């Protein structure tokens, strides 16, 4: 198993099966099990980051006026992202099979 640093992944452009840019890794979701953290999914796309930063209703209205809507990101399960090249992660599935990220209940 090779080592991979989170800071190397955040912001990396994710490519789809046809080499199209799907978005950028904006968030990594992990769960604790037995004292260890395990990655469960990656949030890909510009809106994933913007939504987490826009905690106020005013900020959400500004994003909406800019044409950005919730659901424009993708939640990529951990096993559907090829990280063998951290600079260019690649989806292992069709992006249309993926769902938008869910809002965390811990978010403000």
The SSE string, one letter per element, is HEEEHHEEE
Beta-strand content: 25-35%
CATH class: Mainly Beta
Mean pLDDT: 80
CATH fold assignment: SH3 type barrels
Query: Can you list the strand order of the major beta sheet?
Result: 1-2-3-4
Structural class: alpha+beta
**Helix content estimate:** 10-25%
CATH architecture: Roll
Q: What is the count of distinct domains?
A: 1
Low-confidence stretches: none
Extended strand count? 6
Structural Rg:
14 Å
Biggest sheet record: 4 strands, antiparallel
> What is the fourth-level CATH superfamily?
PRC-barrel domain
Calculate the terminal CA-CA distance, rounded to whole Å.
36 Å
Principal-axes geometry comes out as globular
Question: What are its keywords?
Answer:
single chain, 108 residues, alpha+beta, SH3 type barrels, two-stranded antiparallel sheet, 3 helices, 6 strands, globular
SSE order and pairing:
Blueprint: H1 6-9, E1 13-15, E2 21-33, E3 36-44, H2 46-53, H3 57-65, E4 74-77, E5 81-82, E6 90-91
Antiparallel strand pairs: 1-2, 2-3, 3-4, 5-6
């Amino acid at each position: 198993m090779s080592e991979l640093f989170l800071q190397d992944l955040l912001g990396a452009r994710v490519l789809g099966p046809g080499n199209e840019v799907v978005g950028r890794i904006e968030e990594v979701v992990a769960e604790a099990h037995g004292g260890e953290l395990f990655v469960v999914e990656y949030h890909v796309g510009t809106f994933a980051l913007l939504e987490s930063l826009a905690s106020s209703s005013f900020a959400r209205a500004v994003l909406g006026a800019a044409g950005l809507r919730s659901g424009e990101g993708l939640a990529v399960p951990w096993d559907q992202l090829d990280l063998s090249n951290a600079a260019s992660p690649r989806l292992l599935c069709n992006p249309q099979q993926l769902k938008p990220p869910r809002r965390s209940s811990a978010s403000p």
